[in-house]
Amino acid sequence: MAVTQQDGAYAGQPAPRKKNAKMIVAISIGNALEWFDLAVYGFLAATIAKLFFPAVNEFYSLMLTFATFGVAFVMRPLGAVVLGAYADRVGRKKALSLSIWMMMLGTFAIAVAPTFTQAGVFGSIMVVLARLAQGFSAGGEFGSATAFLAELNPKKRGFYASWQFASQGLVTLLASAFGVYLNSGLTPEQLESWGWRLPFFFGLLIGPVAIYIRRQMHESEEFTAVAKKGDTSSLGQTVVAERQKLLLSFGLVILLTVTSYTLLFLPSYAVRQLHLEPVYGFTGTLLMGCIQLLMTPIFGALSDRIGRTPTMLAASLIIAVGIIPGFAYLDSHVSILAFHILLGALAFALTGYSGPLAALMSELFPTRSRGAGLSMSYSFAVTIFGGFAPFIIAWMINATGSNLAPAIYLAFGSALSFITVIYIRRLGLR
After folding, report:
1. How many CA atoms does the CB half-sphere of 285 hold within 13 Å?
2. Are 361 and 252 in contact (CB under 8 A)?
3. Distance between start and end Cα atoms, the chain
4. How far apart are CA 4 and CA 229, in angstroms?
5. How far apart are CA 254 and CA 377, in angstroms?
6. Dihedral over Cα of 399, 404, 407, 411: its sign
7. What is the three-class DSSP state of 125?
8. Which of 253, 296, 8 is nearest to 154 (CA)?
């Protein structure tokens, strides 16, 4: 399999720096809104469980909520197929605008949904349908946004594409800040009565801003050059021609998605397994968000100089080898400091992997099929390994009685991605 970093149809002439900066802001704000709505749902899982999915005991109620969190990911592959192919056919800009409208619709439905006490199962069904709409939207967002960023400047693809995951760090930061406020500034009664709705209404407030900014974007020059020649791929052609690259891109995403969605379980883990105050679960994820936002672009820029795979190999190996001993130490020496040190170290290692990741994934696919290729590989990996991560980890802890379940899951995901990066290096892409 030949792996190329650019299409011959595009000369690689970068757009002006000021224009590119505006494009990064446009993509990042909209991307942050998309993932903010998903992250908030995971962080508020315990509260949503009580309000919408009451069960015979707290554990089953929480499991129902995590299952509802995961069911949205069943829609991601469908959204990836539809919106990814749409982005390759009509452009990244139109696909990005459509995805953000759909995400806002789902967010609005959750924000105004009546609880089980107020409307019975109707409120629960409304939340599930909203989650399905959000999942469909998110399925297409990643491919379109990543392709757009990667095509802004092929000579600095690592730096520009890294903002895909840096903006997700902004999401963690915002969602965690809400978690800190809701758990420290409100009483449990206020949180359950109206406080849990605040983050979703916040998402609705910034939604129109993101839509306006994205309407001002210009299509990427790399895609425009290919589109003018009529060199675009149908969905079937992408699947057939790029099947090995789809599998490799899938393998690259595993570590990122396992870590990202295990992160959403950590506030519940801090309370239920470590018996820390709820606010500390969110301050831990707040720390991770800060590190991700600051360090991801740095590692992305570094990959433009030394290659994509060196830091990715080191980071995945460190996580695979060190995460179980780290959690074991935390379990036997529970403290606020140990919890935050572990999460900080995990976040730093993760940025070494995620910084070059979007660029490496983008370089696996030619421009004509990049949107669909990125969307499909990412969404299937997230669906299989990420969306049900909180559910799987909660079940593992309950079944085994071991607090090391998150670490075992993270080590497994890290090993799979480590093997994938080694294979890609053997194909000649560094």
Report:
1. 32
2. yes
3. 15
4. 19
5. 10
6. negative
7. helix
8. 8
Question: CA 366, CA 363: separation in Å to the nearest integer?
Answer: 7
Question: DSSP string of 271-318?
Answer: HHTS---HHHHHHHHHHHHHHHHHHHHHHHHHHHHH-SHHHHHHHHHH
User: Tokens in use for 262?
Assistant: 């295990």
For residue 423, the one-letter residue type is Y
The three state secondary structure string of 234-266 is CHHHHHHHCHHHHHHHHHHHHHHHHHHHHHCCH
CA dihedral angle for residue 88, residue 9, residue 312, residue 71, rounded to 10 degrees? 0
Amino acid code (one letter) for 81: V
pLDDT digits (tens, 9 = 90+) for 33-58: 767 777 787 777 778 878 887 765 66
Q: Which residue has the tokens 């600051």?
A: 294
pLDDT at residue 236 is higher than 60 = no
Q: Are 14 and 154 in contact (CB under 8 A)?
A: yes
pTM of the complete model: 0.79
Burial of 78 (0-12, 13-18, 19+ CB in 10 A): middle
